Each structure stands twice: as C-alpha cells, then as structure tokens.
Amino acid sequence: MRKPIIFNIQKFSTHDGPGIRTTIFFKGCPIQCQWCHNPESQSFKPEPMLNKDGQAELLGKTYEIDELVEIATKDELFYDQSGGGVTLSGGEVMAQPIEFIEELTRRLAMRGISVAIDTCGVVSQRNLERVLPYADLYLYDLKFIDSQQHKKYTGATNEKVLNNLKFLSDHQARIILRLILLKDLNDTDDILKRTLAWIKANHIHVEEVSLLPYHDFGRDKYRKLNRECTQNFKVPTDDRLAVIKQAWEDYGVPVKIGG
Ligand code: SF4
Q1: For residue range 100-150, what is the model confidence (pLDDT) as tens digits?
Q2: In ligand 1, which atom is closest to the CA atom of 30?
Q3: Residues in domain Radical SAM core (predicted)?
C-alpha cells in the first residue's frame, strides 16, 4: 500500500474540530491558496525547512497505519471526555493515497474514535465516497462562491468544491463549513448573499459555520522554506465579521469565529 507523507502530528489540538483532538497533517495539496499559512504542507514530497536552531531539516515522513492508530489511541480518554477525536488534515488528506486513508479512518472508527476530515473540497468524489462510511465529521472549506475568484487566488475553479459539498450534504454527513475571510474579496455583502443563496438553493445542511479571518502568522514559514511570501491580504473588520455572523445565524446555523 502506498504511504502518504506526514509532516506533523499535533496532540491536544483544540482548533481542528470539536473537543480535544489529535491532528495528523498530510503533506501535499492540490491547490495553492495565496494566503496559505502552512506552505510546508503544499508539496507532496519531503522538503528541507529551517528548524528553530536555524538548521535545515527534512520535513515529512511516512508512518505505518498501526503506528498512527497507536499514537491516536493514547489520548482516547481525552477524546471521550471532551467530545473530541482525530482530525485528518493537511495539505489535503483526500488527495493522499486513498487506500491508506480509508483504512486509517476505518481502523479509528472501529475503535470508537470520531474522525474528522479537513478538506478544501478540490478532490475526487470517489475519494470522499471511500471514507464516507467511517468519517464522523467534515471540516469543509468554502473559500470563494465565485469560481473566477477561486481560480485566481487558489489556482483551481470551485466546481468540485460545490459539487462535493452537495454530495456530502445529500449523504447526511455532519459538516462544519469553514469560511476563510479576506477583506474586500470575499467578506462583502454581495458574496455573503450569493453564498447563502447557493446554500439554500442546494439544500445544504451544515451543523455550524466557522468564520476564519485571514492572518499572516505563516509568513515566517516561507522564509524557513526559502520561498518568497507575496501575501498582501487584509483582515476583515470586526463589524464585517459581526454582519456575516448575524446573517448565518438568521439563516439558522450556529456560528463560531475562529477554528
Ligand atoms: S487548501 Fe489549505 S493547505 Fe492547501 S494551499 Fe490552501 S490553505 Fe494551504
């Protein structure tokens, strides 16, 4: 079985879904968001990155499924007490060798561990079908309702994102919709209206919406990867966030600001 490359395993994470979680970060992403704060997750290959001592270290390695299950099950008690579990993130987990991801998800689910899939949606529907019987929750990014904007800022149009979101919703998957917000680009009234209209017209059921205002905390990582950081986005104002939050709540969906 082909093994994916993993670049980080974060224990006691509280930002990647409900409760206390272990988050496994898979290396490799099919798109390139211009605001990406995990640039080390974009390439599918191990790559050198400066560590805290300023030394170049090869980032990314493979694990056996048994090893990952063993690491994840160590914190089972915390998951049970907090309503947490394991999050498979990235990069893009659904763009990894799917036999491996399906089996990992299945093994964790069989242990009674809730597995969340964190996805950008630009993935094959076939891959989503493979994890559907075992995954408990999807952290689903909707970056731009406008396909041309999606293409401009991520490199890919949004047809797959919308189709896959509908597919998951039609299959009664539990979905937390994650909206990354960039000032004047996708936090406007027009985009808000278009997004809600699409959600309504397509009968999309989401359990919660997370509003994720843009930040540039990942800037230093570009330097450590010897890459240029050209990000020049602006942070939405608190007033805009309040308006967006209210609009979703009026639509009947609980909203959280932050991950
Ligand atoms: S989907 Fe996530 S990991 Fe991939 S480029 Fe965008 S922000 Fe980075």
Answers
A1: 999 999 999 999 999 999 999 999 999 999 999 999 999 999 999 999 999
A2: 4
A3: 15-254
In a domain, 202, yes or no: yes
110 assigned to some structural domain: yes
- Within-domain flag for 1: no
Strands (E) in the chain, as ranges, are 6-13, 21-26, 47-50, 56-59, 85-89, 115-119, 137-141, 175-181, 208-213, 255-257
Tokens of 109: 């689910």
Residue 176 domain-assigned (yes or no): yes
CATH code for position 69: 3.20.20.70
Q: Give residues with Cβ within 8 angstroms of 75, minimum separation 6.
A: 11, 12, 20, 22
Q: Report which residue type is found at 72.
A: A
Count of domains observed in the chain? 1
Ligand 1 pocket, Cβ-based, cut-off 6 angstroms: 29, 31-33, 36, 38, 41-42, 90-92, 120
Distance 75 CA to ligand 1 centre (A): 27
Please identify, by atom number, the ligand 1 atom nearest to the C-alpha of residue 39: 8
Q: Which structural domain range is residue 251 located in?
A: 6-257
- Whole-number Å distance, alpha carbon 26 to ligand 1 midpoint, is 11
Given this model, what pLDDT does residue 217 score? 86
